């Protein structure tokens, strides 16, 4: 029985010499859209005014933003469009396949969005499911569904969930990693949209799982809420469902099923349910004593501050960067320029004030970047500074560790999202796994958007030989590489 972050991560590690083959059951491929036949749907407006900001300006916005303006249907539609929409279409004999603005391991898209709306002009109060395929809302509950939030006339609470089997169909027990990373990717898109439109918000990974899942009408064995983004929201407080929460009909719970024949992977349910206990309940914050970079058993000799006054070499505005975002793997061996490197480092360091930033450490391997000797570096995101841990040419070894995905060797830099899982367990308990992985996903998405804005290629990598990564980086016991994101110059068609 898995009870800790470390146990789950260990149980789902890849080992070069012990990879068990897994053939995909195509006849049982999960549906990528959640549908609610017979439930009224509201088409969201598409004639929308896009924000004209650059990503650098959005990340530089003060946090939290000023008082919320009133929400209306157009704004809600814009937020959802910027958070999660189609980007590209691939033609297949069995039907078109649509890629989305948030990256997803294997393009399996486990993440769903629900919105609890109150006082949104043009929309009745209620709980809605967001149908990305038709850019519309399904009404699941009428009326107010959340406890009163004093002082705000309009409110939208976004609930992000993952449907387990969508990713488990391919990745089996390892899929929980991708449920969390992928959901982090979608969360960051929504957060950037809120920042672009200057709405105050709060992000909660801590809430009563059972209560929230019941309100959303999820079959908890199949789908679970992972994050809540509340507008305007208050840090440290999550939007509580209004009691009593009546169960939704069984026919709606059934919508969490995505295949005729689904396999449950016990490791996924075990780590998820182990994390059901909240480390910090409302108001009572759990704060680790040390930043995660000090828990890895490695340290640079000196720190160098990033240049915080240099402007970013952006060639694409923020909304276009979101709509054009793709995983681009055609890296060329050309060093990243100094301003690009500086922008990337500042981009991943920018905080939206989340209390869970401390669950994760950021490192990077430099292959070729002006002003940086090749080597392994750590980032101190609080002070926006970097320090070299060890010099050397790591890219070939890192590529080999990433299941020999050969194109990775030409990337300029491999960003590394790291955590000491033992420390996570100690400070936050097994729920800490959710914080670290979703934070990693959020920063991964930010790197994707920043890369697109600067004309670079970017690709997230979840497939890696876990123990080999620990060995290469010289991490202490309990520390792991959770996620790698490669960024580099690419060959433009
Ligand atoms: C958590 C995560 C892990 C990923 N792992 C890999 C990987 O190991 N190799 C790879 O080529 N792409 C990887 N990707 C990229 C996805 O394959 C890609 O996002 C998906 O196919 C959708 O394509 P798009 O990003 O171009 O829209 C990963 C993406 C995410 C979010």
What are the defining features of this structure?
28% helix, seven-stranded antiparallel β-sheet, alpha+beta, NADH Oxidase, 16 strands, binds flavin mononucleotide, 493 residues, single chain
Description of the molecule:
This protein folds into two domains: 8-274, NADH Oxidase, CATH 3.40.109.10; 292-488, NADH Oxidase (3-Layer(aba) Sandwich), CATH 3.40.109.10. It starts with a helix and ends in a 5-residue tail after the last strand. Helix 3 (73-83) crosses helix 5, helix 4 (164-171) crosses helix 5 and helix 5 (175-196) packs across helix 13 (432-453). Helices cover 28% and strands 20% of the residues. The model has no long low-confidence stretch (mean pLDDT 94). The radius of gyration is 21 Å and the shape is globular. With 493 residues, the protein is α+β, with helices and mostly antiparallel strands. The longest helix has 22 residues, at 175-196. It has a seven-stranded antiparallel beta sheet, sandwiched between helices. Strand 2 (86-90) and strand 3 (97-100) form a beta hairpin. It is built from 14 helices and 16 strands. The chain binds flavin mononucleotide. The site of flavin mononucleotide has 19 residues, from helix 5 and strand 15.
